[in-house]
Amino acid sequence: MNSLITESDSVRVADAHLERNANRQLVHVAVGILTQPDLSFLLTTRPEGKVYAGYWEFPGGKLESQETIEEALSRELQEEIGIVVVQSQRWKTQKMDYPHALVQLYFCKVTQWTGSLQMKESQQSRWQQLPVDVAPILPGALPVLDWLAQERK
Predict the structure, then answer these.
(1) Which of 45, 43, 52, 42 is nearest to 122 (CA)?
(2) How far apart are CA 34 and CA 142, in angstroms?
(3) What is the dihedral of CA 100, 68, 74, 72, to 10 degrees?
(4) 3-class DSSP state of 62
(5) What's the pLDDT tens digit per position in 30-42?
(6) Angle, alpha carbons 15-17-20 (nearest 5°)
(7) Minimal CA–CA distance to 44: which of 144, 128, 129, 101?
(8) DSSP 3-state percent helix, strand, coil across the chain (nearest 5)
(9) In whole angstroms, what is the distance from residue 137 CA to residue 32 CA?
(10) What is the pLDDT of residues 104-144, one digit of tens each?
(11) pTM of the full predicted structure?
(12) Are 75 and 67 in contact (CB under 8 A)?
C-alpha cells in the first residue's frame, strides 16, 4: 500500500490518489506517545483485520460518546497494551484525511504509567529512537516523528 502524504489547509492527506466518500463523519482519536527518559518512544503495529494492518503507529483509539480525550486515552491504552496511564499531557493535534476515514488525532505524551506492556491485539511493539528502524509507518504517525525531531534540536 502506497502511503504518500500531501498537505492541504492543515489537513494531511494519505493516499491522495485513492477515492474518498464525501459523506465521511469526522472520527476523534486519542493517541499516546509513551516516552522514556532516554528519549525512546513506543510504536506498535496495527492489528490484522484493520485498515493499514501491519503499519507501525502510536497506540490509541476512538473517543466514545461523552468521553474526554484523557478518558479515551486511558481506556484505549489499557485495552490495547495493558497499561494504566498515571501522567499524560495533551501535546499536538492533526487532522488526517485517509481514503476510509477523516480523523482528528489528539496526541498526548504519556510519561508515567503502571503495569507492563501486554500486546492485547496480537500487535508487535518496539521502543524506538530517532530515526526509527521500523517500516512502514502509518501516515498519521509521521508528523509525530517530525515534531519529536524538532524538539530534540
Answers:
(1) 45
(2) 16
(3) -20
(4) strand
(5) 999 999 999 999 9
(6) 80
(7) 128
(8) 15, 40, 45
(9) 16
(10) 999 999 999 999 999 999 999 999 999 999 999 999 999 99
(11) 0.92
(12) yes
